[in-house]
Amino acid sequence: MSQEFTFTVSDPEGMHARPAGLLVAKAQQYDSTIIVSHDGKSVDAKRIFGVMGLGVKQGDEVTVKVQGNDEVNAAAEFEQFLKENL
């Protein structure tokens, strides 16, 4: 079983270096695998170049899939993190 949610980026700069770095640091706190998808591409949220390579801009929607031992907690906290930072 996995947890999945969508999120619309509101940061005027999109998912640029600073928020991407914060996102990766947050993802690395969990045992679960966290995959971020946008425009047909999916990347590991624990890899900075993958996240930045998605080219997410303000108003873009991303899908986040969380799977692993702590997926319920990880998905809830990760979604809250995105709302507060992106």
Outline the structure in words.
The protein is α+β, with helices and mostly antiparallel strands. The protein has a single domain, classed as HPr-like (Histidine-containing Protein, Chain: A). Helices cover 37% and strands 27% of the residues. Strands 1-4-2-3 form a 4-stranded antiparallel sheet, covered by helices on one side. A hairpin with a 2-residue loop joins β2 and β3 (41-44). α1 (17-27) packs antiparallel against α3 (71-85). The termini are far apart. The model has no long low-confidence stretch (mean pLDDT 95).
- Per DSSP, the total helix count is 3
Mean residue pLDDT: 95
Radius of gyration using CA atoms only: 11 Å
CATH architect. name: 2-Layer Sandwich
Features:
single chain; 86 residues; alpha+beta; Histidine-containing Protein, Chain: A; four-stranded antiparallel beta sheet; 27% strand; globular; HPr-like; HPr; phosphotransferase system; Histidine-containing phosphocarrier protein (Hpr protein) of Pts transport system; cytoplasm
Write the layout of secondary structure elements.
Elements: E1 3-8, H1 17-27, E2 33-38, E3 41-44, H2 48-53, E4 61-67, H3 71-85
Antiparallel strand pairs: 1-4, 2-3, 2-4
Subcellular location: Cytoplasm
InterPro entries: HPr, HPr-like, HPr-like_sf
Main location: cytoplasm
